[in-house]
Amino acid sequence: MPLHCWIRTLLLGGLILAAPLVADPNELPPTVTGKDGAPMSLIPAGKFLMGTALSNRDGGRDEYPERRIYLDAFYLDVYEVTNSRYLEFVQATGHRIPEHPRDKTLTLWQRDTVPDAFKDHPVVNVDWYDVDAYCKWAGKRLPTEAEWERAARGITGRRFPWGNAEPTRKLANYLNQWRNGGGLEPVGSHPQGASPEGIQDLEGNVWEWVADWYDAHYYEKGPNRNPRPAWRSPEGHPWLRLGIGSASAPLSPSPQQRST
Question: What domains does the chain contain, in order, with CATH numbers?
């Protein structure tokens, strides 16, 4: 089965690339560079704990039960997608720019340019369809819920990418107000909060879209091997991952939502 890579296109409210088949998984390089120039880190194949045990204080009803899931290997972007990378996409395709959903005067971009102060910050004010268009341009796709959770929680069901310790300002950017972009930080500002595979900002900074559309019972009935996106009827909503809190905390906003 082909190996895949995922991008993290972000929303303030973060892709898969086919890789050559290999006879020995140990031959896979630990890092690769995507078509969009983004560094990606290998998430090895294997089983991990997905979901939340009934006794766990972090979980919600739609995150039960905790069970062991197998995933093939994949690559995930090390950093959140920045404004500068998203600008390359906009310039190459003519796609609409990210805009504040309610007050255009609060849009961080200046028409079709990005202020220098925000070029290395994660792109925000993008909806699920914006993200999907970026993925197709970059030759990648969004991760499934299971793949995102594996990257964030590892194989042992950690509470956070760095372990089980409560978040601190050294580990993640959290508990900040929007302040017209002032609460955001450049990607990779908290290397101490990275996952064992080196993925940064899986907690904090901004929320992240995944491929799945929300199904309140998917954790209960989904397959135990390579769960695919839980596609539903058109009125269903895709999952949005919280940037801080439990590493397993899905929301289900409208796919057109460009939150602030």
Answer: 4-251 (3.90.1580.10)
What does the alpha-carbon distance between residue 50 and residue 65 come to, in Å, rounded to a whole number? 8
In whole angstroms, what is the distance from residue 181 CA to residue 253 CA?
21
Q: Are strands 31-33 and 238-241 parallel, antiparallel or unpaired?
A: unpaired
Give the whole-angstrom CA distance, residue 112 versus residue 24.
46
- How many separate helices (H) and strands (E) can be counted in the chain? 4, 10
State the Cα–Cα distance between residues 9 and 157, nearest whole angstrom: 24
- Cα separation, 77 vs 14, in Å, equals 9
**What distance in Å separates the CA atoms of residue 238 and residue 251, rounded to the nearest whole number?**
8
Taking the CB of residue 28, how many other CB atoms lie within 10 A of it?
16
Cis peptide before 25 (omega within 30 of 0): no
Asked if pLDDT for residue 17 goes beyond 70, the answer is no
pLDDT: is 13 or 201 the higher one? Answer: 201
Percent share of the chain, pLDDT over 90: 43
pLDDT tens track for 91-133: 999 999 999 888 888 889 998 899 999 999 999 889 888 988 9
Residue 203 identity = E
Strand (E) positions, 23-83? 31-33, 39-43, 46-50, 67-71, 74-77
> Regarding beta strands 46-50 and 67-71, do their DSSP bridges make them parallel or antiparallel, or are they unpaired?
antiparallel
The token pair that represents 204 in the structure block:
């904090």
Measured between alpha carbons, how far is 199 from 208 in angstroms, rounded to an integer?
Answer: 14
Which two structure tokens, joined as six digits, stand for 147?
Answer: 């793949």
Mean pLDDT of the chain: 80
Residues 6+ apart with CB under 8 A from 105: none
